[in-house]
Amino acid sequence: MKKSLLAILVAVVLVLAGCVNTKSDVSDKANDKTDSKTDQSDVVMELLGMSTGEADMNIVRDQLIKNGFQVKLNIQPDYGSFTAQKDAGNYDLALSSWTTVTGNPDYAVRSLFKSDGDNSIMSDEEIDKLIDQASTETADQYTDTYNQLEQRLVFDKAYIAPLYNSFKAQGVNKEVLNVDTVRLAKSRAIAWESIDFVDTAKRATDPLIVQQAIGTLTSLDPIKGNDGSINTLNTNMYVRLVNLTDDDVVVSDGSLSINHAIAEGNQDYYFLLRDDINFAAITDGKAVDSGERVGADDVVFSLNRAKDKDSVPDHRTYSLHESMQEIEVVTDLSELEVKQSGSDVTVKEALENGLESKITELVEDKTAADNATGKYQVVKITTVNPFPQVLNYLAHQSAGIVSKKQVESINTYDVASFDVNKDIPYGDQNTVTEGDKYNNTLYASGPYILSHKNDYEAVFLKNPAYMPGTENEAKISNVTVRFIQDADSSLAALRNGEIHLFNGVPETKYDLVENESKLFLQKSDSNAVTYLLFNTKNREVSNSEDLRKAVLYSINQDEVLNYYQGNKKKAVSTVSPLVDTGNELVSDAAKVQEFLDAYKSTK
After folding, report:
1. Which residues contact 472 (CB under 8 A, 6 or more apart)?
2. Most buried pick, 174, 270, 329, 334, via CB within 10 A?
């Protein structure tokens, strides 16, 4: 009876998955030609994506063809070529994804859809207004605002067409790694410092081997990149004022601050700093203590440049930090006597919670701080408006603390006249890439520092001066990041023992990990959403809402979920995993025809 039931279930899954074509039949011919089965009077849509998203592209292609479109697939081999095609405008639709790594809904929309967003290609005053309004509201207030935002973004204007919300999963070699030490957070990038071997005697001799798909690194300067090439790397290289728990709660644990507090009015934020972190540097291929403490002056410098879009060329993250008005070092102890938000406790009392030595003096010079004797540094951040979500942004890798002294010594160029062919900025990947240009000038405030990389892998070494002797000190001395673009190849490397941890196991491959005796599959919800982004310049879809809406209502999310065997969730926008707005996209062939007819009537 059990075998019969299993056979029936398998058959049902196969029938459901068979609703769409998933195996690629789009050779080079299909990459540069429209589908020959459709009438030449049909509207042509060029769909841009990477080879890693080919299954999704095929599903979308089939759904569009079914609804009267012709489809031209523009499949790029890697993120760099995808970005080049996107920047050149060679698409009508781009297969896009976004993970809200800060755990707050403002991050899910501000950078992507606000007119001045770092990653935005659109401009809509009403959407700008709604994003700013929601940012000042509490969780019990902003649901309706995000509902209105989704309504305009998706249904009224059809700037995006949502596909799905992903789960998060990683495969762990449990014969090599202690599974209990490997975290799988909903939002933040994976933290290496907690990971340990089953055989702890190997900590100093054997590398932890992980993988990531993208080998061309945007920048090792945390404010100059916000993508899959560097998010995990910079998260582990630079400490921040606060961290996120695995369930997206903002905490001081494992961060530069011992404690943090919000004053009444939700505009002033105070951070009591640790005194046991020094910057690491690379000397003769080894990670060494630079002798420079990570202190308040570095925090002020780092966050001021983070919020200033003109502080570096091609600043990618400034919009995440524009809520900060002033960052300063507090030296007057009496300033801490203000009440904490929503409490009768003072900010000073909140900052002193759990301290062995109470605060007796606040010092401006980081070298004068001595927490054991009551001498501390406190940084105060004042926001433009009340904005508690600023704490989530301070947990993002772009808020990583860099060395003021080191960065200023490297970035001697004039920003306005920066010459990419001549000037070498701090964090340039060429300075850590093996070869003639190698000149590693990184100063890392986090648990690890990048030593060197090539096209195959990047090698990270433990910062010897990162919270030594505490539970936050990195366990494993060396981390090797293998660049493996294809998920199937990554899974094969995990099963073969070539890597120890594969973060990003596809939903269709869960069973392969679960059925491997030496592997363990960790699973959780995630804030990752995949969607289609419409081109907003110089294309028919740029100017026609009707055409965009015809594409929107061609998308059948049930078919997508069937292909992934139920291991995806429906989504409406990038805030779907964070806020239940009550909205839903339902495919509708009649609406598709209505909007296509309206579009064609104007031609």
Report:
1. 193, 254, 447, 466
2. 270
